[in-house]
Predict the structure.
Amino acid sequence: MDKEIDCKDRARIRRGNTFGTSGAFIDKAPEMKGHLKITVKNAKTGVIEKVVDVKNLVMTFTRTQISHLFAGDFDPDVATNARYIISVSLGTSGTSPAIDDLAITDPVTITPLSVTYPSDYSVQFSAELDSLTGNGIIFREAGLYFGSPAGLATRVVFSSMTKSSLWAWDINWILQYS
């Protein structure tokens, strides 16, 4: 059965705004995209040395997780229900991302993540790679991971960066719909 369109909805449709509060009239699925920002700072002084800001690729597994979320498909046992992003991993592969990637190579994993919502259509995951972790490793990639079922949500590659105890890395990853 078709939904009746009220005057407010007609005005939104004329303006091209299909995301009205009284229902969504969408002729295509919104695109999911995101970017990773790594701020390398001096561990003692906090002075910023370098900022890396790169767009990421959203994996097929993420789209599957979202469709399960829409359907309410989750384990009612809170202890085992982790159908959400739980960690960020940094790794060593410089191979270009593909939508069917499954893992980060030689991962250094950071958990828990702090979560904020910069807008109605976005979520930001934040973490810190402290001065004691990952030293001597040349990092070239990063990814966000779902908990259960476990899987890679996003992946990105960036120019090689060697981690040392002089530096702490602030990691901020935003996913958004457009």
User: Anything to note?
Assistant: The first strand starts at residue 19 and ends at 20. The chain has two helices and twelve strands. Residues 1-22 have pLDDT under 50 and may be disordered.
